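ok trying again, last paste got cut off:
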Amino acid sequence: MGAVDLTPAPGAVPPPPGGYRAPVRYGYPETPAETTTRLRPVRPRQRWRTATAAACVVLGLGLIGGAVTGAWLTGDSSAETTGNPYTAARDAWHSVPVDTLFPRALQGRGAGPGGTHRTWTRIAVAADSTCEDGLDPLLLTTLRSVGCERLVRATYTDATRSAVTTVGLVFTEADAPGMRALHTRFTEQRLGARKDLMPRTYAPEGTPAAFFGDGQRASWTVNPLTEIPVVVVAVSGFADGRTVADPQPAPDAMAPGATTDIAQAGLGHEAKGIADRVERGLRTSVTELTERPG
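nice, full thing came through this time. structure:
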């Protein structure tokens, strides 16, 4: 075997000392793996875009300022009306569905004598009316200080159909001080216990309340609210049409140890229980109206 010529060719890179040759790589050079997404290149800001953005900001501020000023001048600010229970409640007689104001059935857990449960079924709803159509003259005079926007009423019967109760909501025109003054007057003068201030009945023909007239009124409640401009009234009686010679206000008929026929029949509980549940429903509806956006 002849000798091998190890002389490098002209222009070749001489091998490193010790005879080691670096490995040859093929294809594109290797790049490091990315761990984040590449950001898009941001083009240089153009002067005309800056000017346009500034003009939009100025125009927007002008519109907002004009709206705020107009609302302040006209008093039509949503901040003033939204969340105001007096404003929301005053219109509730026509903005809240009748089945919400007066549910078809009311559950009175613990609302009867001795904590017994009651269930009341709605048998009639009166058309909304003026207070002159639904209140005795003296009660109307007593409520004149707060005015009357509208009166809505419904009549219920108990599960045995032996008792009937008319409940009403008097929507007033008063503000909060006016309603507080009325409530104070009723409390201090015990107006709620006066027989000549009993609410009227609503007794449509063809219903279990057909014989529920003025002479059949047995127990009642009149409660002016202070959080909303409403007076809640209710009056109960026997469904058989018997005349009641000595009606009792609900607190007296519900008193422990009361032995009258009215108390024994639970008619005070009927009036108070139905009035309380209708009042609670109204408060819930007003809360929803005040919390509604817009």
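cool. The chain is about 35% helix and 15% strand. The CA atoms of residues 203 and 212 lie 6 Å apart.
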